[in-house]
Amino acid sequence: MDIAIHLEGSEQQLIGALVRQERWAQQQLYEACYGKMMGICLRYAGSKDEALDLLHEGFIKVFQHIGRYKPGAPLEAWIRTIMVNTCIDYFRKNMRRRTDDLEQAREICLDGPDALSALTEKEILAAVQELSPAYRAVFNLYVVEGYSHKEIAEALEITESTSRSNLVKARIKLREFFALRRMEFDADELPPDETDR
Length: 197
Fold this sequence. Notes:
By secondary structure, the chain is an all-alpha fold. The protein folds into 2 domains: about 10-95, RNA polymerase sigma factor, region 2, helix turn helix motif (Rna Polymerase Sigma Factor, Chain: A), CATH 1.10.1740.10; about 100-195, Orthogonal Bundle (Arc Repressor Mutant, subunit A). It contains 10 helices and no strands. Helix 5 (about 100-110) packs parallel to helix 9 and helix 8 packs across helix 9 (about 160-190).
């Protein structure tokens, strides 16, 4: 379900102004899309500063290639695709590839309920940002963006088994992260005399 971007004037006029590289149009589009696109970048980045860099790089690509946008298609979806691809490109350029074996991942796989179901968005985002770049990229592409392991393998230039392995390990790391946090919260809730034992 695509939500329309609420912009002043018609979309066609805005696109025309963007093609002519008019600053007011660029600012209007940036401000209208900032929140959602920053959310995407935060899921892939290790920090807010890194996410902001990805966001700006993505918007530069949007403004450079706005002439390729096909009217009739949702503009926000087109921008989202550019943002995700910018994050993937960043991952490819800056992170070393890990070729963990799927069999090794199966050995350490944990069964149990999904730890993410009872958490807030802010808690999940903080945990995802703690993952290694390889785990974070695969987790986001598979869980959030809905990519298949084959699509992830092609996008990140890794094998499908590495994609599966990194997803399993990302989930394990997230469970461990939240189990540790839960223990910290539980200890904080105990009366002072019980924590001294």
